[in-house]
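Duplicate of #3305? Posting structure anyway:
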């Protein structure tokens, strides 16, 4: 255990228990301030970063110094982009940004489920809008790839979703290294219905027409999709020449949670709307990564995200087929040294397995297993009626 885990984390968790969103906003503001004082970057970098050629990869035309990225939702407005590389990340995804600025859902909307190493959020894409982000990122140079995660504005009807994504992409297409079509947040009404092949196809068609400089475009999917729906998305990824798939967003499932009551509201997690992140989503997201890797014979890059806290979790996702991984909830719980610890652990795993680079580990475990039949589909009815409390209210 390091000093952060022994002393600072318990203190921070206690101080911020009642209002984790305040803790989050303060962290992002502080990081923004640190970004502006570039003098602080060097010492920070030395203690938090791990540079090793074995961790580097060149994927979809971009160089990733290591495979651990910051997941979307932490830096929603891209206010701290210069600092993420100095904190050890190999890439960072900003957003979700929407074309129209919007306040998100009423507070409280972010809860820690400490017993479960999890969080429950229903932020609802609070952000300053695509034009604001474009103005901020326009002339910035970054040491690591920066992805921009796009969502649908709440005021835009679902039928006009494709145009809404296009309007954001037009403003931002020269500001990011890769782009993500986020159709998987549970906190914007109807958003996940855009994962249906026809709706998603319409969005991807428009974006690729506009994509004159051939920026890599990803789709980020929900862990609660049926296998057939994931297979449809794989087909779309091929049709529209996507760079890859990000698996996964938060889950609307509530099974096997230890937390009985959320302190801030006095209600159980089953009574609170929103998506669960962290340990409870880990296995399902790994299962989906493995499925996509198998179905595509490893031909479509995968960014794996969901419940990564340790090097074991990271190794599991990479050997299941993820070329890159992202962290959010784990980073909150484990603190800023987590990235370096994971990278150190991954180097150890490479040595144990006699591998020379992280790219050799991608899909290793899948290649070694005999092919399995497609798991049974999860019934759509059980997803909608059992796992999504208060869904109508969001
Ligand atoms: C507070 C919070 C806000 C999030 N906001 C977004 C978002 O705006 N866009 C998005 O694509 N994912 C968002 N996510 C999902 C994460 O990017 C990630 O997919 C998910 O949390 C699983 O990873 P984790 O278990 O490491 O947290 C959010 C997650 C949390 C906890």
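Output from current build:
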């Amino acid at each position: 255990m390091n000093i952060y885990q022994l002393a600072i984390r318990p203190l921070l968790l206690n101080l911020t228990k009642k209002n984790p969103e305040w803790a989050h906003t303060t962290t992002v503001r502080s990081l923004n301030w640190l970004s502006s004082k570039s003098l602080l970057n060097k010492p920070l970098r030395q203690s938090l970063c791990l540079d090793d050629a074995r961790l580097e990869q060149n994927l979809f035309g971009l160089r990733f110094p290591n495979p651990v990225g910051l997941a979307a939702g932490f830096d929603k407005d891209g206010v701290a982009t210069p600092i993420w590389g100095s904190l050890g990340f190999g890439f960072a995804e900003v957003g979700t940004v929407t074309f129209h600025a919007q306040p998100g859902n009423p507070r409280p909307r972010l809860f820690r489920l400490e017993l479960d190493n999890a969080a429950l959020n229903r932020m609802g894409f609070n952000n300053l809008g695509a034009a604001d982000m474009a103005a901020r990122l326009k002339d910035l140079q970054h040491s690591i790839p920066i992805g921009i995660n796009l969502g649908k504005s709440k005021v835009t009807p679902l039928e006009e979703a494709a145009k809404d994504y296009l309007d954001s992409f037009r403003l931002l297409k020269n500001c990011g290294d890769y782009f993500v079509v986020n159709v998987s947040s549970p906190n914007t009404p109807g958003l996940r219905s855009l994962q249906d092949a026809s709706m998603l196809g319409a969005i991807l068609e428009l974006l690729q027409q506009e994509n004159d400089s051939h920026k890599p475009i990803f789709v980020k999917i929900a862990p609660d999709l049926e296998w057939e729906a994931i297979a449809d998305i794989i087909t779309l990824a091929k049709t529209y020449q996507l760079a890859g798939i990000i698996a996964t967003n938060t889950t609307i499932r509530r099974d096997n949670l230890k937390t009985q009551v959320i302190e801030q509201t006095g209600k159980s997690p089953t009574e609170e709307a929103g998506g669960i992140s962290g340990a409870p989503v880990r296995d399902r997201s790994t299962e989906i990564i493995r499925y996509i890797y198998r179905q595509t014979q490893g031909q479509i890059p995968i960014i794996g995200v969901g419940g990564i806290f340790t090097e074991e979790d990271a190794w599991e996702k990479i050997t299941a087929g993820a070329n890159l991984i992202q962290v959010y909830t784990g980073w909150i719980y484990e603190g800023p040294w987590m990235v370096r610890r994971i990278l150190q652990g991954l180097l150890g795993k490479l040595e144990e397995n006699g591998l020379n680079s992280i790219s050799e580990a991608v899909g290793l475990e899948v290649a070694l297993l005999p092919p399995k039949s497609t798991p049974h589909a999860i019934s759509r009815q059980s997803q909608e009626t059992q796992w999504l409390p208060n869904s109508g209210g969001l």
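Confirmed duplicate; merging threads. The chain has one domain: 52-393. The first strand starts at residue 57 and ends at 59.
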